[in-house]
Amino acid sequence: METAQKQKRNRYLALAFASVLLFIIYGPLAQFFNGIDRFVYDRFAANLPNTGLQDAAIVSIDPRRGDNQTQLRLYGEIISKLRAAEVRRIILPSLPELGENEPVPAWARTLNAGVPVYIAAEHRFSQMARRSGFVTIQPDPDGVLRRAQLWRLQGGDMRPALAVAVASDANDAEIDRRLAAAEDAIYFSNYADIRRVDADDLIFGDINSRSLTGLTVFVDAQPKLQGDTGLLPSGQFVTQSEITASMLADIEQDRTIISPPWITALEWLTPILLAIAAVLFMPDRGRRDIIVMTLAFLAGLLLIEALALFVLQLRIDLGRAMLVFSGVSLLSVWLVGDNRKESLHAFKRGSDFLAAGRLEPAFAELRRCPPSETLASVMYKLSLAFEQQAKPERAEAVLEWMKRTHSSAVPSESVVQQAKRTPQRLGRYVIERRIGRGAMGAVYLAKDPRINRAVALKAIPIEKDFEDEELKEARLRFYREAESAGRLTHPNIITVYDAGEDKGLAYIAMEYVPGIALKDFTDPNRLLAPKRALELCAATADALDYAHNQGVIHRDIKPANLLYNPKEGSLKISDFGVARITDNNRTKTGIVLGTPMYMSPEQLGAEPLTGLSDLFSLGVTLYELLCGEVPFKATNIAVLMTKITTEDAAPIANRRAGIPASVDAVLAKALAKKPEDRFSCGAELAIALRNCTRH
After folding, report:
1. CATH number of the domain enclosing 670
2. Same domain flag for 304 and 396
3. What DSSP state is assigned to residue 458?
4. What number of other Cβ atoms are within 10 A of residue 503's Cβ?
């Protein structure tokens, strides 16, 4: 009876919570949740094919060249050249405007003759062209262009966008019918560059105008160096001509992602239905079942959204539905609350027994705890402890119990499975314990039995991450980079001893250095003294200078890769060459492995790197060590890339006592956007940092 009452109460609480969530997401915080959805869409859109208009070119006019009359004369000369070259069509999305009393040029009166010319509807010449359409596009609140309005009500009539006007001029009934059913076209993901021709080269004959014959030609007075540009979800900046070209390519190639009116109704109804389902089925189930069902539903909704985008070319926002369902699920997990307090006590007692070497009592206590990744980690340590006590049968019993009892709660890449796969030896090295774990693999404390030397052994699952030809290339790159790192001998660089492969893992044996990663000192409550931070970064700069002179670039300088020994006051750089070893693994934005907030502008742009990129990353590291936050922050990769490539870091000398005023000048130079504007080498940066400590 008591259980039934509790379940009834939990359902009422879940219903009330779901109602509040629905009110919030459709009320005062609607814009916030729209932002979450935009973030999810950007991740999907990054995998869409590049949008490229075939047989097209852009003629660029410098917007700084003369007044509007001069610009218009250039337009007339260009159009004359293009007509003589017999281009397919001419599109003018950014034509300079005339004053109200200024005369219309003679060439503008003939726009409707010969090669078809299309003009922005907002321009005075629009009535003289073959067709016109509006070009104004409103970005989302985060400044990113995602969707374009295809039709606009103006003066009682529906006016098309310029790209729609151009496409429909071909009398393609299918295009017209498809576009008439859409409210919006989500047309941006990635943009494929179109050939650009300088206006002067065309006018003065430096290029053969006949090379443009049969092409769609845009005339653009807004090149990327200046003017009305927009930011795409991919992080690319585009001009008005490129925006129009992208829309036209989507329309003509039937790749337009639309949002029909019924989609809006579906987006409103789905969160309500899922809220009802969650209230009915979640509160009276166990924690494990709730977690499994929630993950399954979220995966299903993400799959639906992805399939709609990639297969049906439909944009559906299911972010609110995911939020409501997961919110009620989390509340249900909290309401279940079965013996949580006792479980915490059991976990503490089990951990204490394990630390004291009392393994059997530890196993007895830990078996009383609910499934979790933390428990899996402790159980793994317990199995290793049984192994060290020469009790392999008990170690196997721990792993089998975890596999049998906790398999549904432990992810496939958990430490339990890793414990089964990770050998007690790699090559000749005897593994003692794991001391770290990162995105590329685990780090173990091991012993070299030949010389009885402790080493740090970094294991990378190379066979899991690569296949066939990629695996061969990865192996070559692995040994090449390990060899390069092994040549480095410097007091501030961790020495690489050996590299090899065993049991599907590539490993690097390195100097074992007890220490603390500087990442621990980026917490605002644990910051190092400014002088100490400057000294450590100066030592790092010296080490980088040495490595760069040896032809070795680190590529992933950050606080987590700088090991500091407070007792000795020493610092060592770790992971030289590791970021390069798995270089073909890329994020969904196309960025090579690394940590984006520490990357240089040229690294974000996947450009060839020099040692100056490491100096930029060291500047970011110093900034964070001094004030507890990185200079460039954002909630999504597109905005972060924009900030790193375009914005200057805020001064920090006045943010904290003890920071010399000269530090801002050093940081400004280290964080310069262009490599040539930074310090010429690590040694120069080291000198500048040490000079700051003397002021």
Report:
1. 1.10.510.10
2. no
3. E
4. 13
**Is residue 637 situated within a structural domain?**
yes
Tens-place pLDDT, residues 57-70:
888 887 777 777 78
Degrees (nearest 5) of the Cα angle 442, 444, 448?
140
pLDDT of residue 160: 83
The verdict on residue 416 lying in a domain is no
> Final residue of a domain: which of 384, 411, 438?
411
* Residue 564 CB neighbour total at 10 angstroms: 22
pLDDT in tens, 619-674: 999 999 999 999 998 877 778 888 999 999 999 988 888 899 899 999 999 999 99
Give the DSSP per-residue string, 121-190: TTSGGGGGSSEEEB---PPPTTSB---EESEEEETTEEEEBHHHHHHHTT--HHHHHHHHT-SEEE--S-
Confirm if 294 and 408 have CB atoms less than 8 A apart: no
In our burial notation (b when 16+ CB lie closer than 10 A, e otherwise), range 221-259 reads: bbbeeeeebbbbbbbbebbbbbbbbbbbbbbbeeebbbb
* CA nearest to 350, candidates 317, 286, 398, 298: 398
What is the pTM assigned to this prediction?
0.42
Side-chain-side CA neighbours of 507 within 13 Å: the count stands at 29
User: 300 with 369, same domain?
Assistant: no
Same-domain pairing of 470 and 582 = no
The pair of structure tokens assigned to 113 is 């003759």
- What is the number of structural domains in the chain? 5
Output the furthest CA–CA distance in the chain (Å, rounded). Answer: 97
CB neighbour list of residue 13: distance below 8 Å, 6 or more residues apart: 283, 331, 335
Nearest 5°: the CA angle 150, 76, 193 is: 50
Strands (E), 194-253: 195-198, 216-220, 230-231, 237-238
Say which amino acid occupies 332.
S
Q: Range of 385's domain?
A: 339-411
**Adjacent-strand bridge partners of 158:** 153
Q: Give the residue ranges of the chain where pLDDT is below 70.
A: 1-34, 36, 49-51, 170-190, 222-229, 260-261, 268, 275, 277-290, 319, 325-343, 370-371, 373, 387-392, 405-423, 437-441, 463-470, 577-594, 695
Does a structural domain hold residue 126?
A: yes
pLDDT at 1: 31
Residue 377 lies in a domain: yes
285 and 175 inside one domain? no
| Measured CA angle at 617 (ends 615, 620), to 5 deg | 115
> Roughly how many angstroms between the first and final C-alpha of the chain, as a whole number?
76
Q: Residue 643 in contact with residue 631, Cβ under 8 Å?
A: no
